[in-house]
Model the fold of this input.
Amino acid sequence: MTKERIEFIDEKPEKKSPKKTTIREFVDGRVLTSDAITSQIPFFVLVALLAILYIANRYHAEKLVRQATRLENQVRELRAEAISSAAELTDSSKRSALINLIGRKGLDLKESVVPPRKIIADEK
Done:
């Protein structure tokens, strides 16, 4: 009886060693056509889209800040104008200011010395 020797050989698929990229492949553009890069194209598109949205959001926020600053300045100016107009109206409606204005205009008006009377209407 002969004994045959049986050897089992595990066949493992050969692992591809990572290929080193050279400068020439970068210049030629062969790096961009490799399977590793082309499978990631949707991810690169998503990253580019997010970057564009981020930049647009930043510009919009800066525009809103500039607009808010401009509106705050307008509010300050209008508030100062309202205060000055109110003070001017208060000064011009004083009794002494009215008497001086009537005198300067040369109007023949005199101050009433009789107090006003209350008019009472009969209810029917």
Observations:
- The chain is about 60% helix and 0% strand.
- Residues 39-80 form one domain.
- The longest helix spans residues 41-92.
- The two ends are 146 Å apart (CA to CA).
